[in-house]
Amino acid sequence: MASETVLIVGGGISGLAAAYYLGKAGVRSTIIEKANRLGGLIKTDRVQGCELEAGPDSYLSTKTAVAELAQELDSDLGGGLSQKIIGSNDEARRIFVVRNGKLTPMPKAMSMMVPGEWGPVLRSPLLGVRTKLQLLLETRKKPRKREGDFSVGELVSAHFGPEMLEYVTEPLLCGVYGGDSASLSARSVLPRFVGYEEQYGSLIQGVRKSAKQAPQQGSLFKSFQGGMQTLIDALSKAVQEHTAVIYGEANKVEKTEGGWRVRFGSESISSRQVVLACPAWAAAKLLEQSAPAPAAELARIPYSSAFVAMLVFQRDQLKHPLNGFGFLVPRQEQQTMAAATWVNTKFPSRVAPGLAALRAFMVGEKAEAMAQMEREHIVQAVRQDFERLMGIQQAPVFDTVYSWPKSMPQYVVGHEARVQRLLAALEPYGGLFLTGNYFDGVGIPDSIRLAKDTAKLIQRNGIYRL
User: Nearest 5°: phi and psi at 332?
Assistant: First the structure.
């Protein structure tokens, strides 16, 4: 007989949030998690007085789901989590871009690839005269509605030319998607800018009118005192009363007369309802026999890999001022890393006095290659980039390294249509639900939002619809 407990495969932020919102509605759940801990990519190491993020170090404050969840957790746990939300050190917010092997400041007041002010971008050495002229001419563009989907590369090149694409847009998107602008979907990755093109023609006009209507308040990037792990710890505590956790790797999901059965190792557990809160490729493997049509669509969603290396130095040994949040490395300038964060500057409270934490981020094939290397070779490769770009010759006091294979879903051209096909293929399979960042938002707030929507659908015993 099927259990009344909802089965959730995956104990990352999506699975934990789904369990939490189910519990709020009085629905018990069981999480099946292959790792020996909950939280997925969200993990904070606490070493020698430093709080070092193994995965995402913050979230976008413009998306409200994290703040709303924190307020609900305050009510459940007796308060405190909302007060632990901190903003990045925006007084020192500046990003550099590597050009010709040198760190060059990104112009101030940029909204992705769109200048919010003329002065900084026209004076910037990052961009050439031709690009600056194209920026001025872009304000004259007429509204345009395109048929079908098209790439980020097409959108940006049409408005600002290849230089803006290669030295601004692609590097900025790399840390989120790790993909190629020629294949990423403009409608799925940059929907706001597609909307500006349709309404105003000029993206510059769209950004400026939007800024006047809803100016940014407070820090763009937010996190928690104690690191992002603080959110995971609070969620894990909040779900304890109504959620069981099984640490084991699910290897198959089967249809039964009463619902669904999840097999893990030599054991299994059944329920009328199951939520797959794991990556699309993992869900595809679990469903390839029991739900082949949804599995086929899930398998078509590509992923990129990520690798994070944190090197911690004696601060007084570094000559670099660390005068910004870090730097981006365009594809044509890369040797090893795609980006680096100067943690001392972005979140000063996370680094112990006298130390400097530099976080290197690798994506795609470079990340996959890193995962096969010995630790000492990984650190050496990252050190070579820091020496080349920042002049650092000193050895780190300590380091942490994390490999996240196939962790970044790629919203390639046609993504919206692919999601709709997936949802249509899922309709005949009552009691089967999917949630995760491969639908319509890759950030932590998006994962929480989608998990909350899934919990509501389970209560209605409906089929997952966006």
Answer: -75, -10
